């Protein structure tokens, strides 16, 4: 059975540049990959991906700002805020042809955010 993936083309050149810069960062890629199927906290991401916790917080904020990570949260019984992050994208497809850069986003259909 073949599944047709719905892609969203990116039109704005600035957005294309930002997405490519994010994809060039190994920590951002690790976070996106790690949260593809199951939401994770920053502490879980830091441990699982081997990323320093301060870097994890910065990358999660960057990915959330650019709408690549969804966020859900709750407050624990002891009053602490607890946030979970999940990838909003399954993949980003890029093609450089005849001096033009095409970028398409394949949304993560597993995300509820």
Notable characteristics:
alpha+beta, elongated, Arc Repressor Mutant, subunit A, 113 residues, two-stranded antiparallel sheet, single chain
Written description of the protein model:
The protein is α+β, with helices and mostly antiparallel strands. It has a single domain, classed as Orthogonal Bundle (Arc Repressor Mutant, subunit A). The protein is built from 4 helices and 5 strands, in the order E-H-H-H-H-E-E-E-E. Strand 4 (89-97) and strand 5 form a beta hairpin. Helix 3 crosses helix 4. The model has no long low-confidence stretch (mean pLDDT 89).
User: Which architecture name does CATH use?
Assistant: Orthogonal Bundle
From the structure provided, what is the oligomeric state, counting identical versus distinct chains?
Answer: single chain
Largest sheet, described in full?
A: 3 strands, antiparallel
- Using the alpha-carbon principal axes, give the shape: elongated
CATH superfamily, called what? Winged helix-like DNA-binding domain superfamily/Winged helix DNA-binding domain
Query: Under CATH, the topology is which?
Result: Arc Repressor Mutant, subunit A
Class of secondary structure makeup: alpha+beta
- List low-pLDDT spans: none
Structure annotation, total helices: 4
Count of individual beta strands: 5
> Helix and strand string, N-terminal first?
EHHHHEEEE
Calculate Rg over CA atoms. Answer: 15 Å
Name of the CATH class: Mainly Alpha
| Average of the residue pLDDT scores | 89
Can you tell me the number of structural domains?
1
């Amino acid at each position: 059975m073949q599944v047709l993936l719905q892609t969203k083309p990116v039109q704005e050149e600035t957005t294309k540049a930002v997405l490519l810069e994010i994809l060039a960062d190994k920590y951002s890629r690790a976070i996106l990959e790690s949260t593809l199927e199951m939401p994770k906290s920053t502490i879980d991401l830091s441990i699982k991906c081997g990323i320093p916790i301060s870097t994890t917080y910065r990358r999660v904020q960057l990915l959330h700002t650019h709408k690549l990570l969804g966020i859900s949260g709750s407050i624990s019984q002891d009053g602490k805020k607890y946030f979970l992050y999940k990838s909003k994208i399954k993949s980003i497809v890029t093609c450089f042809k005849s001096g033009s850069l095409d970028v398409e986003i394949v949304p993560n259909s597993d995300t509820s955010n």
